[in-house]
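Quick question about two entries, pasted in order.
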Amino acid sequence: MRTVRGSLRVWNGIALGTALVLGVGVVSGVLHKPTDDPDTVVARFVGALNAHDVDAAADLTSYPSAAKASMKQMFDALEPEKVDFDVNQVISLGADSGMFNAAATWDLGKDRTWKYNVDGWVRKLSVGWRVSWNPQTVAPGIGNGRILRLDRTDAAPPTVFDIAGVPMMTEQRINAVKLDPATMPDPVGTTVRLAKVIEPVAPLITPESMQQDLAAAHGKQVTAVSLRDGDFAVLESDLRAIPGVVIDTQPKLITVDRRVTSPVVDAMRNVWQANRDETAGWAVNAVAQDGSRTPLTGYQGPPGPDIRSTLEPRLQLAAEDAVVSVGTPAAIVAIQPSTGALLAVAQNNQASDQGPIAFTGLYPSGSALDLVRTAAAAQNTDVEHAAKELGLALGYKIPGLDQQTATFPSGGPNLMRAASDKKSDDVMVSPFGMALVAAAISRGAPTVPVIAAGQPATTTETAPALPSAVVDQLRGVMRDTVQRGSANLLAGYGDLVGATGAHDDDRWFYGSRGDLAFAVFVQNADGGDQAVKMTDRMFKALAKPPA
């Protein structure tokens, strides 16, 4: 028996070492050197692996087709930046067999490294020396139907709390009730039965709406409704009895109180996901045909910190109660001027059908911009400059939230110069933007918005605070509007001040009360005072004892 000791290292497909004295060309699948000894075949085999040349490596085994399939799966799954198989020893066991040992290092990028040792066999066949194929010659844990997979891992999920420190959102199991056309012999019958079963929890989902979704999906599955575990447990047996209904259960971050619905909820999911992404780990798993996993390597650090949302639940529910009082799109945004905390953001279903209009909907400002014009005239400046002093168009970037505050027409300052210029309807504002205006007047300077504690908005622009005399002038106008003007319905709310605005049938009311600033918007309002009435309803709901 001949033993070759020392280290046989392979660099760029060139085998070097005391065990080999013959020159070996670059591994590319077209080598001409015969594999006439175990040292040479092992060197060429690991050289091909290091070069990511699966075909060449497979051709050097006793079972090329199986080896190619297994190694291709391994490389495709791991997508390594670099592979280094370093041969430690090749041992001759006679004239027609031998064994070897190698150390493998996989650089998987992003500071992920997998190291292990393997043992393999070589045999002299009729075609020359070959590596006896066994999947575990290249990686542990695979073979017999098991494959490699690079998986993301996550620590325990953080909880999202509200501004008072009460859990607001947690990760829970959600049961998606789906319709599968491929297993549905009678779509009309299925949708009629399903609508009846889910009516107690989803009365707005009708057979007709589900049939429309199916038609638009062109043979693909569609989700009819998503149910929390409690509701699903009650309905499960009836749901599973309906032909064409399939259940897909997945974890999802949802509100603890199902009454809380807000564009901020989706934004908090983005903040939560960013938290998860920062603390994500990884694992290389050997995965069996039944889906079971055997971890081979990886790393998972500690969980990220819990998240504190700025939503105030009682105000949020009061705002929700107000926006559903009208039949056209409506939104309310409430901010704490002293901190910039988004305390409540609500919109009704008609608004939500258009998207998160509270943040991204831009509407002609009309007379809603009168206070900005007043501030511009008092300082002999243009409206856009005064708008920025009031928090509009400062280019805020808020973690987790897409939003706009205002856009201004082209034409430069002169176009916007006159404080009495009513043509500045071309200025487009969002409910969020007008809430920032109300907050800036209350605070005396622009407030920096935030939806998650410790993650305030950033901007490359700055705006000076309004002169105190101008702030007092604006507050005086707002006080008169509430006490003796078009918003006198709200005169009984003590220190509440505000301003009305209109463009065509759209109506605005924005103002403040104590350390609370807000904007109310109603599109295509049925009545000129509808935004004022909605404000009244919000404060009446807020005054009720907690449920």
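Here is the second entry:
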Amino acid sequence: MNFDLKTLSLAAAAAEKCDLLAVLVPEGFKPSGDALSALVAHATRQGDFETKPGKSLALYQAPAVAARRVLLLGAGDGSPRAVRQALTGAAAQWKAPQVKRAAVCLAALADADAAACAAVQAIADASYVYTATKSQAEPRALSRVVVGVADASAAKAGFARGTALALGVEYAREWANRPGNHATPTLLAGAAKALAKHGPIQVKVMGPAEVQKLGMGAFIAVAKGSEEPLRFIELRYQGAGRTEAPVALIGKGITFDTGGISIKPAAEMDEMKFDMGGAASVLGVFRALAELRPAINVVGLIPACENMPDGRAVKPGDVVTSLSGQTIEVLNTDAEGRLVLCDAIAYAARFKPSAMVDIATLTGACVIALGGVRSGLFANDEALATRLQQAGESAMDPCWRMPLDDEYAEGLKSNFADMGNVAGRAAGAVTAAKFLQKFVGTQPWAHLDIAGTAWKSGGGKGATGRPVGLLVQFLLDSVQAPAARARSRTAAAAAAPAPAPAPAPAVVPAPAVVPAPAAGRTRRAAAPARAARSARAA
């Protein structure tokens, strides 16, 4: 689907030829003399239309309007959240087979940049259709959407951000939706390699032999029960200088989770294909980075494998040695996500990242705690936690800070290893995070438990693509940090008092030989940016 940004007043929108014209009307709308304003004013006077978010009025072949269908949508205060609510509420319209070309008019909204970003994401999300494994599926009919704003030049950045996010979210949704036999670790590695054609992304894929050589004993233990070979996927995006520390994103990639020997109940086990939602979100972030090209370095790590019961599978009570050298007693094989992640976290340390964030459909306990509204956020660094929370609010992909008190780790103690991999039912999401924290060290780290937010169950079940929006916004916000530091250094230097003048040198018979000062190093400022349900214990 193609999106086009266009300067489009209400009068010009009436002349736009398309199958569907959606007009967003905010509170306090003041009609002018154009045909659309007259429609809004008349419908409002008659009580047939309100400007509250979620309110709508559908019209067909309205007088003096070129579009066959006109949809008046209440936009409330005109905020990005209200825009998304208005357009998402009209999902049936965006999926209608007769609607191939559409236009959305945002001319009446004050913040064109934010509205354009929200509108693109909402329409892409509402019109998404899964077809990969359907023989007679009807693909998305909508092929082109014109996003009309009062001033296109003022909305370019938001429009670019929205289109990039739409591509990233859809990439994540597509791979998380695919069945386990169509999204094996090998196929997931292929999806990562395909990203290289979109932008400056390098991909390295390691198999069982390389992972064995590295010493990732916890990751290998989980994969032992499957006929599908594991894959360790490493992605790199370099948008800044080589000396700038990257942000590391680590996505859990369990492409199907039976629970292993600690097998899950049969009911809804089919949904365990989405246990690679963290991996899918990392792929989605890199798809967006390929479009946006921000001035930041990012490393993505995906430990991908299946968790299956087999004669070779890891057993409850087995002790495995992780990449960090710490030993783990596997008390429950359905707590496998933390086993693959702990080795990936230890591996990430070799990149000396400025921050690392792991993303995982880790615990059913987080679903009980937060439902499907907010992802669970755990962090050992206050500044990192604040940045992630703010990014989530800005991207309308929110998270909620959870505790990491040391007392929660008491239940992980083991008589036979350095730690056990579970600590009982109480505070299960927290104890899982405490397990991962043991492999982090002192570097800034955050863990996002997306078990409740990456997937929707029920009649409309499927992947959501979260938290791609949160992560991309976090990375875009992080671009500003080096530049801000450079500005601070410059300001501090300017504010510093001038050095006192040196006293006049004494007259000597012959001038002394003074060695030249050593050449100093200069720092270059970073370039600015360019444009439910989850595994029950895993």
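Reply: The first strand starts at residue 2 and ends at 7. The chain has 15 helices and 20 strands. Hope that helps.
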